[in-house]
Amino acid sequence: MEVIPCPDRDRAVALTARIIETRLRAKPDLVLGLATGRTMEEVYARLVASGVSFARCTTFNLDEYVGLPPDDPNSYASYMRHHLFDHVDIDPARTHLPDGMASDLTAAAADYEARITAAGGIDLQLLGIGEAGHIGFNEPLSALRSRTRDKILTPTTRRQNAGMFGGNEEAVPKRALTMGVGTILDTRELVLLASGAAKAGIVARAVEGPLTARVSASAIQLHTSCKVVLDAEAAAGLEDIDYYRFVCRNEEKWDNCRDLL
Ligand code: F6R
After folding, report:
1. Is the pTM here over 0.90, yes or no?
2. Is the beta carbon of 195 within 6 A of some atom in ligand 1?
3. Does Hydrolase count among this protein's keywords (predicted)?
4. Residue closest to 204 by CA, chosen among 215, 213, 191
5. What structural domains does the chain harbor?
6. Alpha carbon nearest to ligand 1 atom 2, residue
7. Is 62 close to ligand 1, i.e. is its CB under 6 Å away?
């Protein structure tokens, strides 16, 4: 794992967008795993502004609420159109989200896994982290080998996401269809972005704490190519922050990103 501490949120977002843009330019037919949530909004804005082509790119989103149709303004399908898909040259047929409206969620989950496999697997997966320690919607005690399935959302997550539902926690759906922790670990590269003081405690547990199903994000410790991009606030709880800064300063591969570090 590489922890990449940035001075502020803007630069953490810019660095994340730059990593994605670089991968897309190097491999235009990239299979890109996408996340939603507030943290990612500015990442998508920067990708749109970069002008990079998504024409040959295939995308798979981490999750979708159960019971929200794709045209519901709070669905993640709407979020993706609003923040990215409507503003780039991506082929809508190459964009995939789990089907939260399926009458058989188990079959929909299996179909999602099959679609990822048919695409050749995910090259780069973008991740946020929830205050409950989730990646995707893998709430505490999700099996570290879990695959796509439906999960009950914790009260912490429903509270965290209430802002997108007019501040009404009760309006946040109770379930979501999400890639599993195992599905996420099968991707070829992970980039997790976190910002803000509210994430400092859970980031420290995920990065430096024990590997545990209580904090699904701690599973990133098992991945052989994982970057954790943080602003100063989200990095504030890390004990070994000086070491992570030392590594970044000395890694030549970050030389063309010094403006952001
Ligand atoms: C969303 C997702 C979640 C979010 C996480 C952080 O697709 O998978 O894991 O990334 O809840 O959300 P924000 O950025 O709103 O704090």
Report:
1. yes
2. no
3. yes
4. 215
5. 2-260 (3.40.50.1360)
6. 136
7. yes
pLDDT of the chain along its 261 residues, tens only?
999 999 999 999 999 999 999 999 999 999 999 999 999 999 999 999 999 999 999 999 999 999 999 999 999 999 999 999 999 999 999 999 999 999 999 999 999 999 999 999 999 999 999 999 999 999 999 999 999 999 999 999 999 999 999 999 999 999 999 999 999 999 999 999 999 999 999 999 999 999 999 999 999 999 999 999 999 999 999 999 999 999 999 999 898 889 999
Ligand 1 probe mutation, 96, 134, 153, 183, most atoms within 8 A of CB? 134
3-state helix, strand, coil in the chain (%, to 5): 45, 15, 40
The residue whose CA is least distant from atom 1 of ligand 1 is 36
